[in-house]
Design brief:
2 helices, elongated
Length: 165
């Protein structure tokens, strides 16, 4: 059996929004996000990770803003850093392509991140710029990734970020 080489930087896209799989094709979106990450790797100083892997944990949530946490989570046993990013999913009152509410009148448990500006970089979701939920989720994930690598993440005194900005 061949050993599968693990990518040094990759994304995973879990969700905290019940039923999103009925409205968005999350598997193909995750693959497109990882293709995007591959395309920007030459612009990021990943050599400063000293062999550690970087996982972008892009979670779909019921919230108000796109959020990029400023600090890494560190898992020494796996030699992996994790960056948390959140993508708010609209309901059908926020965007025509938004998810319909469930029996309780919501699409899930809402948690505002407006007050987390000290812990996170924040972006407006700009729902009106997109035609569908798949397009929005992909674009929001890319915007969050770009914001994170523009601002950078500090790891043991080294800033992991775009080098051409």
């Amino acid at each position: 059996m061949k050993d599968k080489k693990v990518k040094q930087v990759r994304a995973t896209m879990p969700t905290s929004v019940p039923g999103i799989w009925n409205f968005a094709n999350m598997g193909p979106i995750e693959r497109k996000v990882n293709t995007y990450i591959d395309s920007i790797l030459p612009r990021i100083n990943i050599e400063d990770l000293s062999g550690w892997r970087l996982l972008l944990h892009i979670n779909s949530v019921c919230s108000d803003l796109i959020g990029v946490y400023k600090k890494f989570l560190r898992y020494p046993s796996d030699r992996e850093y994790v960056i948390l990013l959140t993508i708010p999913i609209p309901d059908n009152t926020q965007a025509p392509y938004g998810m319909p509410p469930g029996r309780d009148g919501t699409i899930g448990y809402f948690r505002s991140i407006k007050d987390r500006g000290k812990q996170s970089h924040l972006l407006e979701p700009e729902y009106d710029k997109y035609d569908g939920l798949n397009q929005y989720i992909l674009a929001a994930a890319i915007r969050a990734i770009d914001l994170g690598f523009t601002k950078g993440f500090t790891c043991y005194g080294k800033k992991i970020k775009f080098q051409d900005l």
